[in-house]
C-alpha cells in the first residue's frame, strides 16, 4: 500500500513547509532603437525587487518583492543554478518538484525553459542534473536501484495530446481512489542517459503546436508539460519503492488579442490559453484565501498541476516579463499574478510504497496503461522494478497561521485598502478639476469666437496673418480643414496634453473619458447646441433614455477626427478602466462593468469598441445606443 510520509517523519527533523518560490525574469529589449525612444516600463531595484509605473498615478511606481529578480543580463546558467538545481535532489527522496514558466506571449518563457543550442535552458540542464545525481548515488553504492523515465504532453485547446506518440486523441485525466492524477494511454519512455533523453525530446518538441502571431514569430499555442520520473527500489527487504516526479512546464503566453492580431483559429486557441491561465489564477486565489473549493477541475492545466500547486511539490515559478511599453498591462498583470503565487505554501511529503502483493498488483494495473508503447522498459524490468505512480494524495491543507502571516505580508506589499481608496479619491478629484478647467476654457473660447464674429473683415484678416505667421499655426490650420475662424478657435481650445512621461520609467497615462475641445462640422454646431440631452445617471444602465439624433446617421454629422478620438477614449476605458471607470461609461452599469472585466481577464484587451458585442447581453442595437450615448455625452458636456 502506498504510504505518505511527511518529510519530517522520514528525516526526523523539524516540521518544514515548502512554499512556491517565485522568480521574475526580465528579458532584454528586442529592438534597441525602440528602447532609446520609448524607454522601459519596468526596471529592477535589486536582486529581489523591481518597480513598474503605477498606471493609476504616473507619478508613482509600484514596487514588488520576489524571491529572485533576474535582470536582462542574467544568463541561463544563473537561472538554473540559483532557482532550479537546488530543488532537484528532492526527486531522489521520493518528492515532487515543478518548474513552470509563466508570462505574456513573447516575454521569454520558451527561451527560459528550452533555450537554444548555444544557451540551453532549464529543461536540458535539469535533466542532465537528474542523471548526474542518480549516477552519484549509484557510485556511492547505496541499496537502491534507480530508473528514470519521461512523458511529454501538451494541452492544446483544452485537449491533452501525447507529444511522444503524436495523435489527435485527447487523453483523459483520471484520478484514482487515492486522488492520484493518472493519464491512461500516455507514453512513458525509459531513459538510460541524457543522450537518450535528447533523442526522444527533440523530435517530440517539434510536435508541439506553435504558430506565428504578430508579437512572436514562434509563439507557443499550447502548454507543454515534460514529466521526468525517478523511481527508486530498494534491493533488500522490505523492498521499499519511492517515486519522485519533476514537472517542467512551459506555459503558453497570456494573450492580448489586440496586439497579437489573432483571428479565427488563433483567436480560439487564444481563448483556451487565456481561460486556462485564468483558472490557474483562480486556483492560486483560492489556495491563498484557504477557503472554498480549489477549482483544479476547471481546466486541464490546473488538474494536471494539482500536485505542483498547493500540493506536495517543491515548486518554482519563473515569471517572464518584457520591458517594452506595449507590454505594460501584460507585465502588470503577470506581476500581480506572481505576487499571489508567492503566498502558496506547499507541504512536501515522500511517496513511498512497501513492496507487497497488493502494491505489486496495483503496479501491474498501472503499467497496463502504457506498457505497449515502452520497449525500453524491458531493460529496467530486469531489475524487477515495478512501476508505482508517485502522485501525492490530497493536497495538504495550508496552515492558517502561515496563511494569515503571508496575507498580512501581501497587504503590506500591495498597500493598504485605505491608501488605495485615498489614491482613487485623489485621482477622481484631479479629473474633476481638469474637467472644470476645460469647461471654463471652452466657454471662454466660445465667447471670444462670438466677439470675433463681430470684428470687421479687415481686422480678421490681420488676426489670421498672426496665426499664419507661426509654423505651429500653419500646421494647425492644415490639420483641421475648417474655415480660418473655426480653425483658430479649435487650435487654441485644444486641451493641453497631460504629461505622460515620468523619467526614467515611462508609461502612457490612462485617462477616463473627459470632455475634450471638439471640432463640429460647421453645419452641426448650432443644432447641437440647441439640443437638450437627457442626463444619464452615473453608473446606471439607462436604457430608456435615448439621444434624439437619429440612430443611423448621427455619426455623419460629426467630424471624423472627433469620432475617432472619442472611440479611442472609450476603448482606452474598456481596456484599462477599473470597475469604477467602466461605470462612468453611459449605459454601463455594475453588471455590465463586471462582465467587461471578466471578458478582459479571459480574452485580453478589446481590439476595437465593436468587440463589446461579444459580451453576453450586448446586442447590435444595444451597442449602437452605447456608442452613440458615449460619443455624444463626451461632446455635449
Ligand atoms: N533572456 C533572453 N535573452 C535573449 N533573448 C531572449 C530572452 N528571452 C527571450 N528572448 C527572445 O525573445 C523572443 C521571444 O521569446 P520566447 O519565444 O521565449 O517567448 P514566449 O514567452 O515563450 O512566447 P510564447 O508564449 O508566444 O511562446 C525569442 O526570440 C527569444 O529568443
Automatic annotation (TrEMBL):
Belongs to the TRAFAC class myosin-kinesin ATPase superfamily. Kinesin family. One of its GO terms (cellular component) is microtubule. InterPro entries: Kinesin-like_fam (IPR027640), Kinesin_motor_CS (IPR019821), Kinesin_motor_dom (IPR001752), Kinesin_motor_dom_sf (IPR036961), P-loop_NTPase (IPR027417), RuvA_2-like (IPR010994). ATP binds at residues 103-110. This is Kinesin-like protein. GO terms for molecular function: ATP binding; DNA binding; microtubule binding; microtubule motor activity. Residues 19-344 form the Kinesin motor domain. Keywords: ATP-binding, Coiled coil, Cytoplasm, Cytoskeleton, DNA-binding, Microtubule, Motor protein, Nucleotide-binding, Nucleus, Ubl conjugation. Residues 354-400 are annotated as: Disordered. GO terms for biological process: microtubule-based movement; mitotic spindle organization; spindle elongation. It holds the Pfam family HHH_3. It comes from the Eukaryota. Residues 421-455 form a coiled coil. Its main location: cytoplasm. CDD domains: KISc_KID_like. It is found in: Cytoplasm, Cytoskeleton; Nucleus.
Amino acid at each position: 500500500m502506498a504510504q505518505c510520509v511527511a518529510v519530517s517523519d522520514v528525516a526526523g527533523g523539524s516540521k518544514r513547509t515548502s512554499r512556491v518560490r517565485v522568480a521574475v525574469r526580465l528579458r532584454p529589449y528586442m529592438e534597441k532603437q525602440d528602447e532609446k525612444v520609448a524607454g522601459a516600463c519596468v526596471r529592477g531595484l535589486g536582486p529581489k525587487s523591481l518597480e513598474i509605473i503605477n498606471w493609476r498615478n504616473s507619478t508613482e511606481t509600484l514596487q514588488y518583492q520576489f524571491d529572485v529578480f533576474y535582470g536582462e543580463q542574467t544568463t541561463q546558467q544563473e537561472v538554473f543554478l540559483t532557482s532550479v538545481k537546488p530543488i532537484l535532489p528532492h526527486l531522489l527522496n521520493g518528492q515532487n518538484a515543478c518548474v513552470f514558466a509563466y508570462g505574456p506571449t513573447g516575454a521569454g518563457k520558451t527561451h527560459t525553459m528550452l533555450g537554444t543550442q548555444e544557451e540551453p535552458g532549464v529543461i536540458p540542464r535539469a535533466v542532465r542534473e537528474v542523471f548526474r545525481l542518480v549516477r552519484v548515488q549509484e557510485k556511492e553504492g547505496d541499496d537502491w536501484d534507480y530508473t528514470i523515465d519521461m512523458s511529454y504532453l501538451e494541452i492544446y485547446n483544452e485537449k491533452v495530446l501525447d507529444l511522444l506518440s503524436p495523435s489527435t486523441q485527447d487523453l483523459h485525466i483520471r484520478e484514482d481512489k487515492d486522488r492520484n492524477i493518472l493519464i491512461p494511454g500516455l507514453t512513458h519512455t525509459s531513459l538510460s542517459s541524457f543522450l537518450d533523453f535528447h533523442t526522444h525530446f527533440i523530435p517530440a518538441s517539434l510536435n508541439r503546436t506553435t504558430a506565428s502571431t504578430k508579437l512572436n514569430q514562434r509563439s507557443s499555442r499550447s502548454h507543454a508539460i515534460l514529466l521526468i520520473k525517478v523511481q527508486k527500489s530498494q534491493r533488500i527487504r522490505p523492498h521499499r519503492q519511492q517515486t519522485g516526479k519533476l514537472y517542467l512546464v512551459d506555459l503558453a503566453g497570456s494573450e492580448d488579442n489586440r496586439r497579437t492580431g489573432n483571428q479565427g483559429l488563433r483567436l480560439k486557441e487564444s481563448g483556451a490559453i487565456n481561460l486556462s491561465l485564468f483558472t490557474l489564477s483562480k486556483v492560486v486565489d483560492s489556495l491563498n484565501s484557504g477557503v472554498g473549493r480549489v477549482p483544479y477541475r476547471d481546466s486541464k492545466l490546473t488538474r494536471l498541476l494539482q500536485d505542483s500547486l498547493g500540493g506536495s511539490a517543491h515548486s518554482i515559478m519563473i515569471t517572464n516579463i518584457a520591458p517594452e511599453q506595449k507590454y505594460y498591462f501584460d507585465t502588470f498583470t503577470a506581476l500581480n499574478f506572481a505576487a499571489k503565487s508567492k503566498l502558496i505554501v506547499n507541504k512536501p511529503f515522500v511517496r513511498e510504497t512497501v513492496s507487497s502483493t497488493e502494491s505489486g498488483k496495483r503496479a501491474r494495473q498501472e503499467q497496463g496503461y502504457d506498457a505497449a508503447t515502452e520497449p525500453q522498459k524491458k531493460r529496467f524490468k530486469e531489475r524487477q522494478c515495478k512501476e508505482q505512480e508517485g502522485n501525492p494524495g490530497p493536497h495538504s491543507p495550508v496552515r492558517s497561521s502561515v496563511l494569515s502571516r503571508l496575507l498580512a505580508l501581501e497587504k503590506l506589499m500591495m498597500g493598504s485598502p485605505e491608501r488605495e481608496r485615498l489614491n482613487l479619491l485623489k485621482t477622481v478629484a484631479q479629473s474633476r478639476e481638469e474637467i472644470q478647467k476645460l469647461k471654463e476654457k471652452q466657454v471662454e473660447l466660445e465667447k471670444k469666437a462670438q466677439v470675433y464674429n463681430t470684428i470687421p473683415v479687415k481686422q480678421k484678416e490681420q488676426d489670421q496673418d498672426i496665426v499664419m505667421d507661426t509654423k505651429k499655426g500653419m500646421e494647425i490650420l492644415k490639420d483641421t480643414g475648417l474655415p480660418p475662424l473655426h480653425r483658430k478657435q479649435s487650435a487654441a481650445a485644444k486641451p493641453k496634453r497631460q504629461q505622460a512621461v515620468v523619467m526614467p520609467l515611462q508609461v502612457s497615462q490612462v485617462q477616463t473619458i473627459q470632455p475634450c475641445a471638439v471640432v463640429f462640422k460647421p453645419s452641426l454646431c448650432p443644432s447641437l447646441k440647441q439640443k437638450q440631452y437627457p442626463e444619464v445617471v452615473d453608473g446606471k444602465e439607462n436604457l430608456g433614455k435615448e439621444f434624439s439624433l437619429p440612430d443611423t446617421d448621427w455619426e455623419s454629422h460629426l467630424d471624423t477626427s472627433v469620432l475617432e478620438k472619442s472611440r479611442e477614449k472609450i476603448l482606452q476605458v474598456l481596456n484599462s478602466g477599473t470597475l469604477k471607470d467602466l461605470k462612468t461609461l453611459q449605459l454601463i452599469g455594475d453588471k455590465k462593468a463586471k462582465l467587461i472585466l471578466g471578458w478582459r481577464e479571459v480574452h485580453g484587451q478589446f481590439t476595437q469598441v465593436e468587440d463589446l458585442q461579444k459580451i453576453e447581453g450586448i446586442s447590435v442595437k444595444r451597442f449602437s445606443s452605447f456608442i452613440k450615448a458615449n460619443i455624444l455625452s463626451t461632446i455635449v458636456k
